[in-house]
Amino acid sequence: MSYTESPALANHLMETVLPIRPAMVDRGSGIRMKPGMVEELVASGSAKAMVISQRKALVSGDGLWFGDAAPLWNALTASGGGAVSAIYLGTTLTSSSLPEGTSVVLFTVAEPPAPGTVTVPLGTEWAGFRDVAARLDANDTALFIEASAISNWHATHTHCPQCGTPTEIEAGGWVRRCPKDNSEHYPRTDPAIIVTVVGPDGRLLLGGGGPLDARNYSTLAGFVEPGESLEQAVVREIGEEVGVRVTACQYLGSQSWPFPASLMLGFTATTDDTVARPDGVEVTRARWFSREEMQEAVLSGEITISTRLSIARSLIEHWYGGVIEDLQP
Hints:
Strands 1, 2, 3, 4, 5, 6, 7 and 8 form an eight-stranded mixed beta sheet that branches. Strands 12, 13, 14, 15, 16 and 17 form a six-stranded mixed beta sheet that branches. Strands 9-10-11 form a three-stranded antiparallel beta sheet, with no helix packed on it. The model has no long low-confidence stretch (mean pLDDT 92). The protein is built from seven helices and 17 strands. By secondary structure, the chain is α+β, with helices and mostly antiparallel strands. The chain is globular, with a radius of gyration of 22 Å.
């Protein structure tokens, strides 16, 4: 059902929120605290492993490639391709490319081994999440996002921020401990708000960066600053980026976006303003759309909006009250 069939569905704030996507993996926060847990799991011969190197994962066809953890670990550590680390990702909760109940570990390597070497089969390839996201099922998407987030953190937090000593990996890869001062360090997540701004006439405000003649438009977003509530961040960011004063806002849902470590917190907001003034730095273009204008502009190719993989698209379609049809190639 679309907004044309039931106008009450369009940007309805009281009951309708973005759907909750169930967890695909039990991360085992309790069992991973056991010292040597990952090493035991790898040696057991029952675990599967995915591999990430330089922010790219091994994929095969339309999914992640998973190898038998024990022989893959032995081959990677003996290959001379640089440091290798193992991180426990969890146990699959549903069946897809892996059977339900499969224990999954992540191997990160400094240098990506070529397909056809170190037990990595020919036919696989190295790809970033954006390159293959549209082809992945829900399980592989969840594992790729989790693996990207934790591997990004390890790559950028190798030393103690208090004394500079190299830290050691513990708790299945989810803690780094300083051997000198015994301080513990945990993966960080940076909260960012992402917002649909709706004017007094029901039109939606979207923005974009880069050249003034670019066609891409999306929701407005920004990072939450220390000591700031999410709602305060919404008001500040919208004011800074497009000069619009928010009168009310409501949280709708969230999406992990670990590039490198963001958690996107989705809001819809209202304003009495009808004129937007882009800051010229983060936002160079801003435009108001009615629902009819939005659909016509997308179908004609006049504009492009965020893909269905992103929370931005979910927020836009929440305002729209239904599915926005894409221009077909």
